[in-house]
Write a structure and sequence with these properties.
Largest sheet: 7 strands, mixed
Oligomer: single chain
Family: Belongs to the aldehyde dehydrogenase family.
Number of domains: 2
GO molecular function: lactaldehyde dehydrogenase (NAD+) activity
Protein name: Aldehyde dehydrogenase
CATH superfamily of the largest domain: Aldehyde Dehydrogenase, Chain A, domain 1
Organism: Egicoccus halophilus
Strand content: 15-25%
Structural class: alpha/beta
Number of strands: 19
Keywords: Oxidoreductase
Helix content: 25-40%
Radius of gyration: 23 Å
CATH class of the largest domain: Alpha Beta
Distance between the termini: 65 Å
Length: 475
């Protein structure tokens, strides 16, 4: 099979070695992409640097490019092709893949709006004696070449969350998509370059291993900023390897959700069942740790299990499928291993926990869990919900906070005072009241603390990260 080329400085590039891309669900060969080398990265970065010097785009042109991208992504033919590609290479159910395409439309639209409206500020220089008679203002200027490293779980929209703000900020980009799901990112780059008017020097794609291509991008002296979404271990390793760069990290979570007895706990159970299994639980804010009040725990678990068992598991291209395969066999084996470890430590499998005849891990609900089990202490990144009970909401809030992560949390309650208290006390980047922690709008400030990262994404917030203030003083 011939390689699907990547674009570097406008040229369709292949490599001596290739990487096969196989469907996680059935193993079919989907394509082959170049196994790029350090030389490819050097060439891409050099072209991006040249764009900063020779091919700078005014804001109105960048905004038009972003608007055009949103229009094309909304086109039925383009959207269907991208959704199918996502479903095949990520095993994301096709209905969920279509939602991802729709979200990417919003991401580009908000980036275009930010491009047109983001501004600097007037500096009150005469607030000090030395500044009297001088006029000052702060300009937002591009930080430089951005290296974007994206994960497999949202191969379109998380690429969009890197590329669209970078274009809005005036930063040329070198993109390294996840090695498991590069085809979607390649298609998006082709769309921007061939049909949206983005100059060839502004976007370059390098596919390959993290150890070679990723490391070269991270350590390259002409890359001003790395924006990375992925695992904490890799993310903090990047931060350590590039101490002189700006490094924006959006990492993992083991999202807690608290269910109070005054809430509509039955509706909460159904929402949590879906949120814990969307894309087989492979989301940074997938519901994972469930704390339910003892007064309603038995009924809640029964309703939760009914909702989980009603989920349709199977082929991601089937419109009825709600849960499909994990990204690869290693991921599946890791998750099943953690479930088995939890059972050995005293947890109970209420449903799921087994791999079916198609090789798909069935959506799983565990009870009798403790905080030190991996299914609670770590990020499962699989279709597993771990349910614990509590009698005092103070204990639930404390247990939710007892984690090295800090991305999103949720609480279901009709008590406004408790909701306000939860927002104040839950130590997470986002606290969602009366919905699952998996909820996100693409324009909101999204990110966390501790092992969940060090930044906020969303087009406006990413543009602020990708620009610097330059002080201008007129005497």
């Amino acid at each position: 099979m011939s390689q699907t080329p990547v674009r570097i400085d406008g040229e369709a590039v292949t490599a001596e070695q290739g990487m096969q891309i196989r469907a996680p669900y059935d193993g079919q060969l989907l394509g082959e992409v170049p196994a790029c080398t350090a030389e490819h990265v050097d060439r891409a970065v050099a072209a991006a640097r040249r764009a900063l010097r020779e091919d700078r785009l005014p804001a109105w042109r960048r905004a038009e490019i972003l608007d055009r991208a949103a229009e094309l992504l909304a086109d039925d033919e383009v959207a269907d092709d991208l959704a199918r590609t996502i479903a095949l290479e990520a095993a994301k159910p096709i209905t969920t893949a279509r939602v991802e395409v729709t979200r990417a439309v919003s991401t580009f639209r908000f980036a275009a709006a930010t491009c047109r409206t983001v501004s600097g500020e007037v500096l009150p220089l005469d607030a000090s004696e030395a500044g009297e008679g001088r006029l000052g203002f702060g300009l937002r200027v591009p930080i430089g070449v951005v290296g974007a490293i994206t994960p497999f779980n949202f191969p379109l929209n998380l690429v969009a969350h890197k590329l669209a703000p970078a274009i809005a900020a005036g930063c040329p980009v070198v993109l390294k998509p996840a090695h498991q799901t590069p085809l979607t990112g390649i298609k998006l780059a082709e769309l921007l370059l061939a049909r949206c008017g983005l100059p060839a020097s502004w976007l370059h794609v390098v596919t390959g291993s993290g150890s070679e291509v990723g490391a070269e991008l991270v350590e390259h002296p002409d890359v001003a900023m790395i924006t990375f979404t992925g695992s904490p271990g890799v993310g903090w390793g990047i931060r350590q390897a590039a101490p002189r760069k700006k490094v924006s990290l959006e990492l993992g979570n083991n999202s807690p959700v608290i269910v109070q007895p005054d809430a509509d706990w039955a509706a909460a159970a159904k929402k949590i069942a879906a949120a814990g299994n969307t894309h087989a639980g492979q989301s940074c804010i997938s519901a994972q740790r469930v704390f339910v009040h003892a007064d309603v725990a038995a009924d809640f678990v029964r309703t939760l299990v009914e909702a989980v068992e009603a989920l349709v598991v199977g082929d991601p291209l089937d419109d009825t499928t709600q849960v499909s395969a994990l990204i690869d066999q290693d991921a599946r084996d890791r998750v099943t291993g953690w479930v088995d470890e939890a059972v050995e430590a005293g947890a109970t499998v209420v449903t799921g926990g087994k791999v079916d005849d198609a090789g798909v891990l069935r959506p799983t609900v565990l009870t009798d869990v403790t905080g030190d089990m991996k299914v609670c202490a770590e990020e499962v990144f699989g279709p597993v919900l771990a349910v614990a009970t509590y009698a005092d909401v103070d204990d639930a809030l404390q247990a939710a906070n007892d984690t090295r992560y800090g991305l999103h949390a949720g609480i279901f309650t009709t008590d406004l005072a408790l909701a306000r208290r939860a927002i104040e006390e839950l130590d997470f980047g986002g606290v969602v009241v009366n919905d699952v922690p998996t909820w996100r709008a693409d324009q909101m400030p999204y990110g966390g603390s501790r092992d969940s990262g060090n930044t906020r994404e969303g087009p406006l917030y990413s543009v602020l990260e990708m620009t610097e203030i330059r002080s201008a003083i007129l005497s």
